Amino acid sequence: MNSVVSLAGVMLALGMSTAMADDAASGDPYLWLEEVEGEKPLDWVRERNAAAQKEIEAAPGFAALRDDLRGILDSTAKIPYVQKIGEHYYNLWKDAEHERGLWRRTTMDDYRKADPAWETVLDIDALGKAEGVNWVWGGADCLAPDYTRCLVNLSRGGADATVTREFDLTSKAFVKGGFERPESKGGLGWIDADRVYVFTDFGAESMTSSGYPRTVREWTRGSPMSDAKMVYEGKTDDMYIAAIRDHTEGFERDYVSRTLAFYNDELYLRGKDGQLQKIDAPNDAQKSVHREWLLLELRAAFDAGGKTWPAGALIVTRFDDFMAGKRDFVALFEPTDTRSLASYTWTRNHLVLNVLDNVKNRLEVLTPEANEWQRSAFVGAPAFGTIGISGIDDEKTDEFFMTVTDYLTPPSLYYGSIGSAPEKIKETPAFFDASGFQISQHFATSKDGTQVPYFMVAQRDVEANAANPTLLYGYGGFEVSLTPNYSAGVGRGWLSQGGVYVVANIRGGGEYGPRWHQAALKANRNKAYEDFAAVAEDLFKRKITVPAHLGIQGGSNGGLLMGNMTVMYPQLFGAVVCQVPLLDMHRYHKLLAGASWMAEYGNPDTADWDFLQKYSPYQNVEADVTYPPVLFTTSTRDDRVHPGHARKMMAKMQAQGHDVRYYENIEGGHGGAANNAQAAYMQALAYSFLRQQLFPQVK
């Protein structure tokens, strides 16, 4: 169990569902495509799906690639990552026989073996078959300290909206008459065996304009959910309201979170009398409470205790002292021009920092002793690669799991205890031959002179002949960092076919901390696009490729990136894969979860439209411009980014005579696929389309 209380922990559900806005006067001829499951729009979808499938499935090697990708995803040799719940270690396992997954468990002694003995707890495929619903696993919250009762979340087809049901780990069955929440964005959280916090759809005006819960209530066993007692009521234009109890022995506390927007939230301590006391820290700071400690991860400079703490710093103080008015902080991390804090994790006696130094992970151990924190090196971390680390049980042990990977190295899982070298206990086999490849890091100069890092994966003897088919991937938003991670799909679908793979660490991401993210917010969104263009131009300068052989790919916010690169820089690219994208920035805030992203992009109903309209691909695509070929993909069941974005862009570009094709998965949520078969098919479509467009010999 991880007892850290943070907003990230109570905001696992993202997405919403609202009625389509009445905007008939907008002059948008394709507004009807926003009716997600309407008969006419779905007929339109099926027609375009068929056309794309006919074209792309005809590509040489499509079926073999699809089957290979399916085999990789279904492989029984991949690492079964686990979570400790009580004395057991739980895993959700998917393979060819279990498309939706088995929730299963084992012991640590068994888990460390090459072939652990697993006990099935819940068969999601069997459940879906019995109930006639295509259930997708959404996680479980199990009640400490006994860990016999869990709140299990399930979604239809992979959507963000979930149902919650109480589950008994002893009988391995759902509890008859237990806590049960109908389908909605939101969730339940344990208070004790007979009470839960419930934040969900209670009917009219109970959801925010972003489609998340506007209220959180206390629900007592045996009473109807409608009778749950109000704990906190937010405003309609808030983003998300939730509550959580920290069950750490000796430090039991209740918290209410009020999220106004991304990176803008308030956290309250709820007393036994139900009264709320605000934790008076900056709204834009990530607030986390662990045992006696309050940690603040700063996104802006913060004056406290007679000192100014810089943006990007991680500072700590004793929680009770802070609530009493004291402001005596200690800096656990301070950023530099090249270093930013990626994450941190607790064990029982230590805090491990995971730092990015020029997009390379470095680990450091901090130990609280009396009135100071001791620093020491982390034993056993590799010099290169993406490293993930998490404490196994921060209430009881200093044990941890560590994962290590890079673009060419399959993930390995290590088990260890702070202070001693970890032991490799699991590793994923290589799913493609990486022996002839190398990873290199480069820096492109953006329009304003900023140095933008990017990674390139290519054959060691790659020729600078300006003819290499190259795939450039990017995201550039919401402080998300792109670090070197193994992708069997990229390896099998692109690298092994002779392609070069490039990942751009553009502004808007988190590679250099908050400053890198904030540099591309709202009116400065163009910085992300200029950075991406600069990486493309640097590839041309280095004679790796030319526009005719350069493809680009991105999804969600990265789909918006793809849309803008298509309409703003069409001369730079030979093909575009635009996945689950935002594209209509005039209406994005009226569609599903869009209102929650206005802190990132701006509000088009205000003067923000003056700059937003420059970065709205749907409004800027023109009939008399030659654009690169585009493949749009999305999901009908994506209740986070509305499929109407991709539908309308496809319809408009097709009507203008552009070279476009479209595929919409009927289920799959924001990830685009609900099972391995769908994921393999979607990947095969993308890579086959790119090969058709960028490899001269493939048609």
Write the layout of secondary structure elements.
Layout: E1 5-6, H1 7-10, H2 39-57, H3 62-74, E2 83-85, E3 88-95, E4 98-106, H4 108-111, E5 119-123, H5 124-131, E6 135-142, E7 149-156, E8 162-168, E9 173-174, E10 180-184, E11 187-192, E12 195-199, E13 215-220, E14 229-233, E15 240-246, E16 253-261, E17 264-270, E18 276-278, E19 286-290, E20 293-297, E21 302-304, E22 307-309, E23 314-318, H6 319-323, E24 330-333, E25 339-346, E26 351-357, E27 361-369, E28 372-377, E29 386-391, E30 399-405, E31 412-417, E32 423-427, E33 437-445, E34 451-459, E35 470-473, H7 488-493, E36 500-504, H8 514-518, H9 526-541, E37 550-555, H10 557-568, E38 575-579, H11 598-601, H12 609-612, H13 617-620, E39 630-635, H14 644-655, E40 660-665, H15 676-694
Parallel strand pairs: 35-36, 35-37, 37-38, 38-39, 39-40
Antiparallel strand pairs: 1-19, 2-3, 3-4, 4-5, 6-7, 7-8, 8-9, 8-10, 11-12, 12-13, 13-14, 15-16, 16-17, 17-18, 19-20, 20-23, 21-22, 23-24, 25-26, 26-27, 27-28, 29-30, 30-31, 31-32, 33-34, 34-36
What does this 3D model show about the protein?
By secondary structure, the protein is α+β, with helices and mostly antiparallel strands. Among the domains are: 39-70 and 437-694, Rossmann fold (3-Layer(aba) Sandwich), CATH 3.40.50.1820; 284-334, no CATH class; 337-428. Helix content is 19%, strand content 33%. It is built from 15 helices and 40 strands. Strands 33-34-36-35-37-38-39-40 form an 8-stranded mixed β-sheet, with helices on both faces. Helix 3 runs antiparallel to helix 15. It is globular. The termini are far apart. 52% of the residues are buried.
